[in-house]
Amino acid sequence: MRLSNYFLPILKENPSEAKIKSHQLMLRSGMIRQSSSGIYSWLPLGFKVLKNIEKIVREEQNKAGAIELLMPTIQSADIWKESGRYDDYGKEMLRIKDRQDRDLLYGPTNEELITQIFKDNVRSYKNLPLILYHIQWKFRDEIRPRFGVMRCREFLMKDTYSFDISKQDAVNSYKKMFLSYLKTFEKLELKAIPMQASTGPIGGDLSHEFIILTDTGESEVFLDKNLLKIDIKNIGYSEKNTSEIIEKYSKFYSATDEKYNKTEFDNLVKKENQLHTKGIEVGHIFYFGDKYSKSLKALINSKEGKNINPQMGSYGIGISRLPAAIIEAKYNNQFMKWPKSITPFQVAIINLGKNGDDADKKSNEIYQILKINHFDPLLDDTSESPSSKFKNFDLIGIPYQIIIGTKMNKDEYEFKELGKDKVILSKDEIVNRLKEIYNSDK
Amino acid sequence: MRLSNYFLPILKENPSEAKIKSHQLMLRSGMIRQSSSGIYSWLPLGFKVLKNIEKIVREEQNKAGAIELLMPTIQSADIWKESGRYDDYGKEMLRIKDRQDRDLLYGPTNEELITQIFKDNVRSYKNLPLILYHIQWKFRDEIRPRFGVMRCREFLMKDTYSFDISKQDAVNSYKKMFLSYLKTFEKLELKAIPMQASTGPIGGDLSHEFIILTDTGESEVFLDKNLLKIDIKNIGYSEKNTSEIIEKYSKFYSATDEKYNKTEFDNLVKKENQLHTKGIEVGHIFYFGDKYSKSLKALINSKEGKNINPQMGSYGIGISRLPAAIIEAKYNNQFMKWPKSITPFQVAIINLGKNGDDADKKSNEIYQILKINHFDPLLDDTSESPSSKFKNFDLIGIPYQIIIGTKMNKDEYEFKELGKDKVILSKDEIVNRLKEIYNSDK
After folding, report:
1. Same-domain check for residues B153 and B291
2. pTM (2 decimals)?
3. Which of A243, A310, B243, B422 could bridge across to A163 with cysteines, CB 3.0–4.6 Å?
4. Which domain holds residue A420?
5. Tens-place pLDDT, residues A289-298
């Protein structure tokens, strides 16, 4: 993409309404704009990051055996009355009357609707285990929406629902999702710690929050550093593997400030292994048995010919919250550097020349070469000053830059990874370097 | 995907509520389920088709130079009051009050919001032309939702908005979208005819509907067969090309029943070129000048230093309606055959053997080989009878089948394109045939 053709409205100043650094950066780098209280439009740069995150979440869900479908945003109130949650949810639920005066609502979550779909379409134990997920916009009418997309009203979630014939099978599905969450966050280059959690309005008796560690963030977290050393690479989704992983994590102490107990922390964790930092919740998983299958009367024919309620779990990732959470984890107040798995563009080409001069020609040439090699570069072909260009790219956060000054030799380009020293490379070397960087995981 | 692990609830009978063949087929083949009046869940098979259509629409928008962003589903009523459409829209607009008693609505279209975004972020003629699009769920509170996803309440649209400094430039953007629509529908293997249209509630003075030709369908269409011969392959988006294409289409008669005039049709079209068939609207494009930029006070600094209202157009494709429209065009009441560009799976493997026999082993072997070669096959590994399997695959509509009977030689497989005769191929030949089929466009 050529910047002159793109839609990337950069702000020079920090907007006064933005109190945390992710909100500031997302506004300044033209990722989002608020359209009304707690409701945001995703401008092209933010949209690309959001879609890239969605893709990674989707890939790992599929690997874990979950199947994607899509439920609507608007639901009938009837199933919520049946489950008993219509009144429980209070004012956070956006309630709507249609032209026929029927009660609708904008789904804040989908346990009821997926249970209804399951009930209408699955009859036999032979179809289980079944893990279904969707990625859809949801709405919670927060009384005080704030911090940009971190606590907004319309937000994008991945939510997964598991159906099993027995508690034991359901716990296996739970463990699969547990591992898939760890893998998803690792691909996003985040340190995510699963912490035992209360189940809240979803219900149930087994639950973990996934908290990513950040310098700034909504809650304080206390944990044993051994948690950071657990290796999940190359671990597949067998029952044995997933059980081992959850056991490993359960061995070491971790808690958010809500559950933190100093005596316990000091007793269980050696001084040198104690880590006290901040964190942001980006995922939450629940096992809740037959809470919904019972109230909504979903029944499955068991091997023994009995009609029983399936055992369920639900598993959420806050996709639209993740760009902000990643910024809180990665932005060092000097420059943002997106993880290469989700960067909006793979490489920035910063043309310091003027229309038609050698630097300009070289910039266009390397741009074309990268396009032909299936890379996704952003070429700054605007007439802004060099210092302004560098400042903008520190906000945009593309992790690699090709800088093309006016005083370089013919086949010489400055190549820079953000935060590291520049090196001088030829065109071919740049192509090879980028291939190493971006194809290494495939 | 193995069918035994998938979620594909096939119905044996036509559901009584479905009056048209696309609605019947989508329910029977487990593509969709209604969750409440005019609101549908997309089950995994339907979801894959929907996503594939979305991908093709997106690719062609990008080629035409449009840039993707994402606006929210819920909008503030304020901008609609400013444009004057809040009252115009009547009961089709889903109006909502939030907990602070503010007026919100579920967007039925986005002219107001995109104009607001433009106004807040673009100042100079240098940033024009600018073509922005998004793909998002919309809501129209239809009084009588019917025909499944063809006329439902919550629906997925691609809508594009163009901003230009002059009417002439705006017409150029319009022509680009005109060509991109033709190319999009061609990739979907549809015959789409652009027809001059009334502008309705969007306003403006230039508008085309894109009608695809079907045997069954919502409206009658009358056209000159010469329209079917216009070749758009290999035509790029230059001003010259796009002008020529729109001129070619404008030369020949076409009309839906609303505008049809028999005398005119007979006078303008030779008897042997007259075509009278049915059609379904799948796209609609508008040029409407400064209707919204004026009412919402969006201003651009022109080259001459004047503040002027940009000239706008909007361009919609009904993405969630397209699977149904494609079924109306392609389903011959015996079997459905998805265009290969959007088929939910690339090839069906129909195992007629039993657990552990030679046919079963061969089925698993070819399944693995196809996966390794990056194809997306659906293996029917269930214990249903052969006749029931064939009936199901006639509904599912995967265009190619590998049929593995119990009496075949070791490296022999029946390979069949739906509606054509079977051929006997070896494993290698199947892989090569599928490569020819699916990589030929790349």
Report:
1. yes
2. 0.96
3. A310
4. 345-439
5. 999 999 999 9
